[in-house]
C-alpha cells in the first residue's frame, strides 16, 4: 500500500547516523504510514550497506544510490522522483533535524499546505551552539536571498534543509540544482499557493562531519544569481 508520507534523506558518509535516525523517525511517526528513502552518493564509509542491513528488517526503508558525490540538491530531486507518496519531507541524515518535528510537518501537509518549512527563525525555533559570527553569516545569507529573490520571503527560513511539500508543486519545473539550497529553487520556481511553517531547533552533530565547504558558499551565491536571471515559473 502507498505510504502517506515519503521521507527523503540525502547521505554522504553518514554510516554512524543511519540506525539512530531510523529509530528516531520510527518513534516520532509511530502512528503514521511512511517510507524512508535515502539517496546515497557512493559514500566510501559504507553508508549504503548499513542502510541495506537495516532495510532487511524494515520494509519501509530503501536506498537509492548514485555514482559519485553529485550534491545534496540533486539528491533531493532524485529521491522525490522515486518516492511513493505525494507528500514528501526532506531532512538531513545527521540528526541535526530532530525527527520529533516530523509529525507537525506531516500534519500541515495533510491539512493542505503546499509547502511546509521547518524554520529556525521563529519564536520557538533556533540553533544550538552557534557562535555570534555563525549566526551573523546565516542572517546575512538570508537577507541577501530576500533582496535578490523576493519570492523567498514567503518563509522566515529560506536556507532551511528541513521541509515538506506536495510533489505536484514541482510538476513541469525543470530544476537546475546547484549545491545545497534546493528549497530556494523550489520557493522561486515551483507552483504553490500556501506556505506554512513549523519551528525547529537546529542541534549540533553527534557523529560524522559536515560536508559544508567554501564551495557551498560559492554555490549559494551562484544559485541566487542563476535564479534571478531565470524567469520564475508562473502559477498554472
Ligand atoms: N547524497 C548526498 N550528496 N548527500 C549529501 C551531499 C551530497 O553531495 N552533501 C551533503 N549531503 C547530506 C549529508 O550527508 C547530510 O545528511 C545532509 O546532506 C546535510 O549535509 P551537512 O554536511 O550535514 O550539512 P550542514 O549541516 O552543514 O548544513 C545543513 O544545514 C543547513 C542550515 O544551516 C543542511 O541541512 C543544509 O541543507 C541546511 O541549509
Ligand atoms: Mn549537518
Describe this structure in words.
The structure is a single chain. The chain is 36% helix and 17% strand. The protein is an alpha/beta fold and 236 residues long. The protein has one domain: Alpha-Beta Complex (Spore Coat Polysaccharide Biosynthesis Protein SpsA, Chain A). A 7-stranded mixed β-sheet has the order 3-2-1-4-7-5-8, sandwiched between helices. It has a two-stranded parallel sheet with strand order 6-9. Helix 1 packs parallel to helix 2. The chain is globular and about 50 Å long. The mean pLDDT is 94. Guanosine-5'-diphosphate-alpha-D-mannose is lined by residues 10-12, 14, 39-41, 69-72, 75, 92-94, 96, 159-161, 180, 210-212.
Give the rounded overall mean pLDDT: 94
What's the CATH C level? Answer: Alpha Beta
The level of helicity is 25-40%
Oligomer: single chain
Could you tell me the radius of gyration in angstroms? 17 Å
CATH architecture: Alpha-Beta Complex
Put simply, the count of helices is 7
Give a count of the beta strands, DSSP E runs of length 2 or more.
Answer: 9
CATH superfamily: Spore Coat Polysaccharide Biosynthesis Protein SpsA, Chain A
**How many structural domains in the coordinates?**
1
CATH topology: Spore Coat Polysaccharide Biosynthesis Protein SpsA, Chain A
Low-confidence stretches: none
Strand line-up across the major sheet: 3-2-1-4-7-5-8
Please give the alpha-carbon distance between the first and last residues.
31 Å
Question: Biggest sheet, open or closed, and with what strands and sense?
Answer: 7 strands, mixed
Q: Give the helices and strands as they follow along the chain.
A: EHEHEHEHEEHEHEEH
Bound ligands, named by name, code or SMILES:
guanosine-5'-diphosphate-alpha-D-mannose, manganese (II) ion
In terms of DSSP E residues, the strand content is 15-25%
Return the structural class. Answer: alpha/beta
Amino acid at each position: 500500500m502507498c505510504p502517506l508520507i515519503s521521507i527523503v534523506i540525502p547521505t554522504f558518509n553518514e554510516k554512524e547516523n543511519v540506525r539512530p535516525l531510523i529509530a528516531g523517525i520510527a518513534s516520532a511517526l509511530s502512528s503514521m504510514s511512511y517510507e524512508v528513502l535515502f539517496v546515497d552518493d557512493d559514500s566510501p564509509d559504507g553508508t549504503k550497506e548499513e542502510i541495506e542491513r537495516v532495510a532487511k528488517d524494515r520494509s519501509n526503508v530503501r536506498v537509492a544510490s548514485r555514482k559519485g558525490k553529485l550534491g545534496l540538491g540533486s539528491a533531493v530531486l532524485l529521491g522525490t522522483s522515486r518516492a511513493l507518496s505525494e507528500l514528501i519531507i526532506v531532512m538531513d541524515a545527521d540528526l541535526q533535524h530532530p525527527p520529533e518535528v516530523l509529525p507537525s510537518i506531516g500534519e500541515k501537509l495533510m491539512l493542505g499546505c503546499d509547502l511546509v518549512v521547518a524554520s529556525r527563525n521563529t519564536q520557538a525555533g533556533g540553533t544550538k551552539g552557534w557562535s555570534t559570527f555563525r549566526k551573523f553569516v546565516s542572517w546575512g545569507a538570508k537577507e541577501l536571498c530576500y533582496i535578490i529573490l523576493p519570492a523567498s520571503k514567503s518563509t522566515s527560513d529560506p536556507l532551511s534543509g528541513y521541509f515538506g511539500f506536495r510533489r505536484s508543486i514541482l510538476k513541469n519545473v525543470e530544476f537546475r540544482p546547484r549545491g545545497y539550497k534546493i528549497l530556494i529553487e523550489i520557493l522561486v520556481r515551483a507552483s504553490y499557493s500556501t506556505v506554512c511553517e513549523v519551528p525547529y531547533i537546529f542541534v549540533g552533530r553527534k557523529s560524522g562531519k559536515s560536508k559544508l565547504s567554501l564551495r557551498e558558499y560559492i554555490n549559494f551565491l551562484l544559485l541566487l544569481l542563476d535564479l534571478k536571471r531565470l524567469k520564475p515559473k508562473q502559477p498554472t
